[in-house]
Amino acid sequence: MEQLPSIKLLLKHLQQVPYLASKNLYRVAIHFLNMDENKIQQFCTALQTAKKNITKCEQCFTWKEKSDKCIYCDSLKREKSVICIVETWQELLAIEKTGGYLGLYHVLGGAICPLDGISAEDLTIEQLVSRVKNFGIKEIILAMNQTPEGEATSNYIANKLKDIDVSISCLAKGVPVGSSLEYMDRVTLYKALSDRRPF
Amino acid sequence: MEQLPSIKLLLKHLQQVPYLASKNLYRVAIHFLNMDENKIQQFCTALQTAKKNITKCEQCFTWKEKSDKCIYCDSLKREKSVICIVETWQELLAIEKTGGYLGLYHVLGGAICPLDGISAEDLTIEQLVSRVKNFGIKEIILAMNQTPEGEATSNYIANKLKDIDVSISCLAKGVPVGSSLEYMDRVTLYKALSDRRPF
Question: Which ipTM score applies to this complex?
């Protein structure tokens, strides 16, 4: 395999694709070699078209078609005074799937993590603050991941917004639906106890 | 996501890549969207170059660069009177890694499997027979997978070669190195017992 330069180059590029286990690289390479030249052309065109046509919305930083309006910011059905803040687009999609939220979004692009060299300046926090100031936002929902980095980012944002007249909420912490208490970690269970609700 | 046609098309193409779990498709799509246009170009070029430059050797059916000789068939270091028959290239690579074989190969392109619609005519068995006849081959090693399909293919090939003066061997069946007898299936253990060797 390593003696064939074209395959070696292809493997080098496939290596950079995330979520492709290294033991499967050869198999994927062979899959592509067995494909029609035509199909490969189509695959490449899809890749290049997506790169060319897709950009980030300048307000909420989700992906959008360059020629179209943002499907969240410019939707007529959405409540324009609530912003849900998420780390990345994947979290946004997870929230969208619930069907339980009809406000705006703001994608930070990650969470503050000094160990990985991600500081507040690398995220879209500044743009968020000016959005809250200028667009009459009434509520902010912090929907960061429940990780130390997510918590730190939540605190940072809450601190940045403290002088602005906006209510800030965060997702409820507790026992996930469908799970057994026996297998729950103690911090979650403690949270679920202390945040208990009338039945 | 589904509302953005360029991303939808990209996802459709990514879906066809094997060994890419469907839960990771979005993440891979976003990885590509975050890449430089330049890098995407390089990725596509690598894919197209590999497809353009790589072909199958007309003798042994392994992959080779179109402009080069086959690294197995045309190697001066290899014993030209022994052929090891494998189902696909992955098995060939596994055998190469052992460093214990220095003969020729023959890649069948799969195993006979009527349920999947793969018959003997779909494999390179005919070419193998004429190779054995015309190139003075003295030994054939059947290195098919130890599956019902592999066994059936071995039997079919042995039958096809029965009138030709060539010795046919197959891989030893037994207990894998490093494993406990306790966890071995009974057919393997039976084989290991009946094929026992002087210590």
Answer: 0.77
